[in-house]
Amino acid sequence: MALPVQQIPKWFYSMKINFINITQIRSQFMRPRKTILHGLLAPQQSSGNFFHWGFKNYRTFSLWNSSQAPSSTRQENIDAQDSHPPSLKGLQLKTEVTNFDSEISLEELEDLPPISPLQQISEEDAVQIVAEPPLPPISFTLRDYVDRSETLQKLVLLGVNLSELEKRRGAGTLLLKLDFKNDIQKILMFLKDVGVEDNQLGAFLTKNYIILTEDLDNLRTRVAYLESKNFSKTDIARMVVKAPYLLNFSVDRLDNRLGFFQKELGLNVEKTRNLVIRLPRLLTGSLEPVKENMKVYQLQLGFKHNEIQHMVTRIPKILTASKKKLTETFDYVHNVMNIPHHIIVKFPQVFNSKVLKIKERHSFLTYLGRAQYDPQKPNYISLDKLVSLPDEVFCKEIAKASLEDFEMFLKTV
């Protein structure tokens, strides 16, 4: 005897099905179509699992042709009928169900009781449950969150060094609060428009992750300010990469920094612009070392204001060099090597060199009798060549000796 379609929800309810998924039932019943409910090809199941058994053999536009099945198959099907619920033993295989929407009411399905969290389940069902470990409420590393955070995963793909960021206080918490699509993606697009290359984004964000929290309109305003000061797009891109915190500074602060260097060094607008292009961290770093070095050059080392101007426009880095290094280098070059101020001014790169390197090479030239730094005399050796050439070239072109001789000499010093 065929089971009336109207009784199917009630039959499900009377069988006390424990794992009914209302969403699955809707997806099967909401589409109008002609279907066949198969009954005799189901594996042996208990009556309590009829829902699983019934829908496992549910097929669209398929008929079971009992007349074409072999006798052995028929016998198996007959045996299988014994395991079916008694109320379905007489169910014919060609029971056609057309348009479930018109026969079954969704209200009847929604009347089924919800699954209780206290409901007992079998051991077989229990071992199939995969429970992810909870996120730690407190952690000293971002590694615990990478697997579940899309933001962290995409930052890693960009080349961001999370092991460096997690050392900074509050950085990990900040990144976990950000949404990649809504918060980070627009900043990345902005940086690319500024001129930051794809392979530079990782290193940039590792140094300045705070920019991810900046307002996009403020960032655009700061770029527009630099453009108004005749910084080209290439210059701005170079400055942003070399000084990652540049765009975190407000327009007023950027303007004050440019004004400081123009006034303190007495430079014109073009030379001031070239100065910060070559060393953009002058705009983002502390001004105290710069002020102190200016006093050192004038008061301790005895350089004139115009000489300082010439040196810093040639080698801007000497504005941020340590006071100790400046005084040691000048003391040896001026007082030991007897090189006057006006020659040092022509070769300010000497302040960027290691004092030990200058001492070793000067001592070797003195030993060979070739330590001659006066441009008015023969065999003149410039400070530039003294400090910039590699050892092999220095020995061959300046000292006129072999590298082995230079290395042997250093062992005796």
Protein model, in words:
InterPro entries: MTERF, MTERF_sf. It is found in: Mitochondrion. It comes from Sarcophilus harrisii. With 413 residues, the protein is mainly α. Among the domains are: 5-117, no CATH class; 288-347, no CATH class; 353-413, no CATH class. It has 25 helices and 3 strands. The chain has a 3-stranded antiparallel sheet with strand order 2-1-3. α9 (150-158) packs across α13 (198-207). The chain is elongated. Residues 1-104 have low confidence and may be disordered.
In short:
This protein has 25 helices and 3 strands. Helices cover 55% and strands 2% of the residues.
Total strands: the figure is 3
Low-confidence stretches: 1-104
Please write the string of helix (H) and strand (E) elements.
HHEHEHEHHHHHHHHHHHHHHHHHHHHH
Determine the number of helices (DSSP H or I, runs of at least 4 residues).
25
Shape: elongated
Alpha-carbon distance between the two ends: 111 Å
Main pleated sheet? 3 strands, antiparallel
Radius of gyration (Å): 41 Å
Strand order of the largest sheet: 2-1-3
Q: Provide the β-strand percentage band.
A: under 5%
Structural class: mainly alpha
Mean pLDDT: 77
Helix percentage range: 40-55%
